Amino acid sequence: MANITNVVQVGASVYRVSVTVTSVTIISDPVAYVSQTSVYQEILSRAGLPSTLLFVAAALTSIRTIGTTKEYALTCTFDSTAVTASGHSHDYNTLLFSLRESYRDGPTIDLDPLLGPVIISYTDDSTDFFRIKKDTDDLFYVKADGDIRLGGNLEMFLDGTFDIGTPDEGALLRRPRDIRLSRDLYIGGDIDAEGSANFYEGVEAQFFAFTPQTSNPDTAPGDRIIYWNSIDNNLHSWDGTVDSVIGGSAAPATGQFTCPLRVQVQDAVTLIAAGQVDQADASSSARVLGFVVSKSSGTDCVVQLSGEMESFPGTLIPNSQYYLSLVPGQITANLGTLTPGSWSHTLGISKDANTLVTRFEIPTQI
Length: 366
Known about the structure:
Shape: rod-shaped
Oligomer: single chain
Strand order of the largest sheet: 16-20-19-17-18
Largest sheet: 5 strands, antiparallel
């Protein structure tokens, strides 16, 4: 006996019927039982639905035992479409399965264990091998050249040999993400976020060409740059605070400044205001600007900002590192003369007893 518990229309011609089948004997396959014409016709009659509806599918939702009676609760789906749910048609190129709204997740294809697997092949010139579409959008496809697309994501399974300096170079690598890179890479190629890589064989980084600048092109405090200054023909560095000369082929750069009377030729000086310098010493973190090379008056001086200082006649220890002293304006090769809390200013290395090759580094506190 079939008792109807609910009837819902889920489509223009699709109905879902909740039914309870009662039996004093065990029904081994309730779904197959309700799919019989005599049984589903009884269900249609009890549900008040046209007898012309066709059985599409059924799902067993529960089984319970009441004494000697078994109750099987099922949800049955019926459709008025003339083609049955299991029917299909095919020609040389296409296999069509008729889908019903009630399926939701589509039909299931069971393979015979003695005949599987499914083999899909083609003999024409098409590049599409297997494709599933929704309207005009690709949901999934496999192409003959090895591409697999799932929605908007594309994977390539191409076989190929990649010689890029790996220990096993020449091995067969099946996916780009499997490539291991060695340290011996050439510049001029790209590795992008999606796993593609391009290298231009034989293009090796040998030099960098600087575009001449008349002044520091970037004086932001947080930036660190190197640039070529076309005015003094020197390579400059900017450490976020100070613009320094780090090398070049021209004569040493100099500048005209005002200064106190106490400043002497050969003194190391620091900038105290625009166009003004004073003696530098290691008690302060104020950086050394350069060395005084001449004075035209008691309060006017010329400061050498970079290059080789040749104004130390016989007073230097050759090949020694020199630092700013605690004595104003003076330098020392003995870092031990500085006291705790003072600042270590590296100024350069002595080329010989007369010449200091300047290199002003950022001071560090002792």
